[in-house]
Design goal:
single chain; mainly alpha
Length: about 100
């Protein structure tokens, strides 16, 4: 891996490390604000769906965006190639690149 990619990954990992310490589901379920009660009522079978979205999607996109903004186009392509190989190995599914939500 490009030696300039590793520090960008480490900085981003450090910046977003606090997220793993937060229990978004518990925070969501215990909140009594009108907004949280309303959002839970939208999906009563999944009352913590907003917390799940934040912890699995939004934070991951924010972290990836943080890394990508520090990299050159060549470095982004190199990182994407590594991600793609890992994803294909884990899932067996070939996917096209779609970082549209994460591109800086």
């Amino acid at each position: 891996m490009d030696q300039q990619i590793k520090p960008a990954l480490a900085r981003s990992r450090s910046k977003f490390s606090h997220a793993s310490e937060l229990n978004f589901e518990e925070i969501c379920l215990q909140s009594s604000t009108a907004w949280d009660e309303y959002s839970r009522s939208l999906t009563p079978e999944l009352p913590a769906s907003l917390a799940y979205l934040v912890s699995t999607d939004l934070l991951a996109i924010a972290e990836l965006s943080d890394v990508l903004k520090e990299l050159t186009n060549d470095q982004r392509e190199h990182l994407h190639a590594r991600f793609r190989v890992a994803a294909t190995a884990l899932t067996g599914v070939e996917m096209e690149r779609d970082w549209s939500g994460a591109e800086p």
